[in-house]
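Milestone 3.1: sequence recovery, worked example.
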């Protein structure tokens, strides 16, 4: 049997939010290492590994076969979640994509608006926009985490449909309400990173002489205030 390494910390950030023994869909599966780990370690009972490109699906199928898990892990070459609704998922994982692409994938799969299906999302960009979309569309954010890997910070957002709109402050959209409340590990480092990002944006606008930096000034102020509270 092929030895499958334990997934990285950023991928393992999904584990606390998965239904034990449930069925999981992994969107953008690449080599299917995460589904293989989840099923191989009996965290999930079965999995569907999805990818839009045929190459990664073929790689996934080879790895699944080498792990002797072909009876428990299926593959699907598709755009997002199209065609995955019949799988009967307990959880849907979407990692490694931009926040707006994740929003598009979810909006094209209305069947995820189901209280029995958990979403575990890791937007590479625009996490604040994704949080706002989830809250506007009746999803409750039930878990959040920040991981640090290869000099980069990753936010994990777990959500479940509740049918009611929620509301976050601008700070909570950017940092995550639960991250703030729980003083999540790496929160301080993430805020410091975000301050650097927003200061660079502000400098770029200020250099143009016509740019309005009021938005950047507001964000920088609450980031610096939050950082001071963590010291």
């Amino acid at each position: 049997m092929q030895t499958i390494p334990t997934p990285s910390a950023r991928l393992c950030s999904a584990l606390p939010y998965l239904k034990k023994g449930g069925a999981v869909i992994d969107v953008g599966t690449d080599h299917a290492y995460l589904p293989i780990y989840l099923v191989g370690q009996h965290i999930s009972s079965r999995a569907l590994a999805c990818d839009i490109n045929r190459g990664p699906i073929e790689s996934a199928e080879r790895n699944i076969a080498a792990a002797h898990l072909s009876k428990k892990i299926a593959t699907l070459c598709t755009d997002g979640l199209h065609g995955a609704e019949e799988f009967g998922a307990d959880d849907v994982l979407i990692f490694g994509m931009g926040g707006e692409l994740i929003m598009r994938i979810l909006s094209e799969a209305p069947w995820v608006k189901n209280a029995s299906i958990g979403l575990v999302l890791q937007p590479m960009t625009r996490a604040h926009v994704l949080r706002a979309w989830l809250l506007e569309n009746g999803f409750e954010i039930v878990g959040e985490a920040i991981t640090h890997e290869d000099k980069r910070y990753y936010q994990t957002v777990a959500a479940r449909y509740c049918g009611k709109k929620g509301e976050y402050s601008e700070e909570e959209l950017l940092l995550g309400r639960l991250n703030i409340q729980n003083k999540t590990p790496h929160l301080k480092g993430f805020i410091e990173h975000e301050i650097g990002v927003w200061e660079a944006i502000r400098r770029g606008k200020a250099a143009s002489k016509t740019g309005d930096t009021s938005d950047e000034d507001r964000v920088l102020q609450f980031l610096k205030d939050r950082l001071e509270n963590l010291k």
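The chain has nine helices and seven strands. The two ends are 49 Å apart (CA to CA).
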